[in-house]
Design goal:
By secondary structure, the protein is mainly α. It has two helices and two strands, in the order H-H-E-E.
Length: 70
Amino acid sequence: MKKIFISLFVVACALSYSCKNEGSKHKIEKQDMNGPEYTSKYICPMHCKGSGSENPGVCPVCQMDYELRE
């Protein structure tokens, strides 16, 4: 009977140790939505860095047609 209690205690300790909450160690980066790829009248559907124009055209990075920003 004593061995059963010791075994249950060891299992409970191992379980509580493995389930401890350490929180997230990953940093969440905020996306900068101030560049021309977000603020221009015509934007690339893929939001390629540095793309976007006030006139219709083609994205210089991915070669997709610009779309009118809504």
